[in-house]
Amino acid sequence: xxxxxxxxxxxxxxxxxxxxxxxxxxxxxxxxxxxxxxxxxxxxxxxxxxxxxxxxxxxxxxxxxxxxxxxxxxxxxxxxxxxxxxxxxxxxxxxxxxxxxxxxxxxxxxxxxxxxxxxxxxxxxxxxxxxxxxxxxxxxxxxxxxxxxxxxxxxxxxxxxxxxxxxxxxxxxxxxxxxxxxxxxxxxxxxxxxxxxxxxxx
Length: 202
Fold this sequence. Notes:
- The chain has 202 residues and is mainly β.
- It has 1 helix and 16 strands.
- The chain folds into 2 domains: 2-88, SH3 type barrels; 101-199.
- Strands 11-10-9-8-16-15-14-13-12 form a 9-stranded antiparallel β-sheet.
- The radius of gyration is 18 Å and the shape is elongated.
- Keywords: Signal.
């Protein structure tokens, strides 16, 4: 618990400095080998998962203090992979709303897909809501915080969200995410508020 608490405190600072989370591809691993994911940022830690030698779109959440290991999710937990074999995908803006991304939450369960083509929300208490991605902003003077808004074309519907580059837990697993979301959804004359995590991995 102490180790996790320290990680949660340091992740926002690390993510801002390193522009994380970000998608990476596995590079330099032999075709008949795998890249190990370990329980901690050390080659002596036990293996908790693996990445294929041609794996693409691996989401690195944060780096360890030395920058040699990246935090990634595997199964229902997170682990650490050597950054010597992970190459950042080009074209990821250092300080802009990450698009595309998928967001989600529990109690009640809901999901939101964010793409250039628009926003799609699905939940238990609200029918599917689709809007444009009309506006995206970056917080003035505060790195790693973004806003977005979208409006429905067929009915009075809209969404407003604030995304932060910070540690986020889904509350149901040991996975750690690098983006949090506060979301307002207006549909059918009802305004609902949600909070959850977001992931770049597809």
